[in-house]
Amino acid sequence: MSFNFLAFSQDPLFWVKIILGILLFLYTIFAFIMWNQARSMQKLVDQFPMGLILSIIAFLHFLAALSLFIYTFAIL
Amino acid sequence: MPDLFTPTNPPVDPATPPLVIPTPSAPVVEHHLHALAAFCQNPVNISFQTQEPDEEILLFLRRHFVTNVPWIATTIFFAILPFIIGYVLSLTATVLPISQNAINVFIIFYYLIVFAYAYINFLSWFYNISFVTTKRVVDIDFSELVYKNVAATKLSLVQDVSYSQIGVIRSLFDYGDVLVQTAGAMDNFDLSAVPQPERVVSIIENLIGRRPRVL
User: What is the pLDDT of residues A10-49, one digit of tens each?
Assistant: First the structure.
């Protein structure tokens, strides 16, 4: 299956999809930073088990953002 | 010539041991710190990175949970907003000019942003912590993911402790700002919106010897 860029660029929602893709990419980076900060703070102040739970939630959020980014590329 | 001044206290005999008044010490009651606690004396299940081996946490402080109400209300509002918009669109029978897949992506993306907003606010509350230990006052500030500041001062450098409790809400829920003033050019510590500020001031004053120990 080949990607037809010409057909894609003639889509009336071309720019919407491009902007959505860029936003999702930036959001995925942001989610990664969020996860990283949660881990960093967990090391600074260890309140078991809440620190660990917050880190896991941040990681799941990062995975969700990454999945959405990939899914968006697959369907749009 | 007669003596102008004679000491009333008898001279201390070096062979006599000094008089020691035994002070009763209250048994330390350790408390299990629950997940959303904002005030805890002698917590057991928490530690911080720069804690020394012989340093014990006497007091754990965080902003009162009531201070989270504004962002929780905002989150709930934005969480139900798509349902309201969807209901309005269904009433007007409006058809959006994009595919259902794109709408799904938009909705999931929107909820991820709402979740991130709530998570960051919770994290900012959760990791804005102050400790009073057997040696120091430690203040950890964390906000909006990008600002992190850890400040500490020795108890011996603490000069004055005061608190302010202004407003009906603060009086109702018993929380206020505690100001720990330190000696010299060091920064003061502002422990904002901590529960039971009077008790916090009392505990710190006891530790720095400004007030007789309350048993």
Answer: 766 777 778 888 999 999 999 999 999 999 999 898 888 8
Domain ranges of chain A: 23-40+48-76
User: Cα(B35)–Cα(A41) distance, rounded to whole angstroms?
Assistant: 15
* Residues of chain A positioned with their CB less than 8 A from the CB of B38: none
Report in angstroms the alpha-carbon separations of B6 from A31, B13, B14, B215: 79, 18, 20, 40
Q: How far apart are CA B193 and CA B195, in angstroms?
A: 7
Instruction: Name all contacts of A7-10 with Cβ < 8 Å and 24+ positions apart.
Output: none
Strands, E assignment, chain B? 39-41, 46-48, 57-62, 129-133, 136-143, 147-154, 158-164, 175-182, 189-195
**Least CB-CB distance to A68: which of B45, B108, B150?**
B108
CA distances from A15 to A12, A20, A23, A27, B112 (A): 8, 8, 12, 18, 22
**Which pLDDT tens digit goes with each residue over B28-67?**
677 777 888 899 998 888 888 888 888 899 999 999 999 9
Is the Cβ pair A61, B112 closer than 8 Å? yes
Please give the residue of chain A at the shortest CA–CA distance from B119: A58
pTM: 0.81
* CA–CA separation, B121 and B104 (whole Å): 26
Strand partners, B37: none
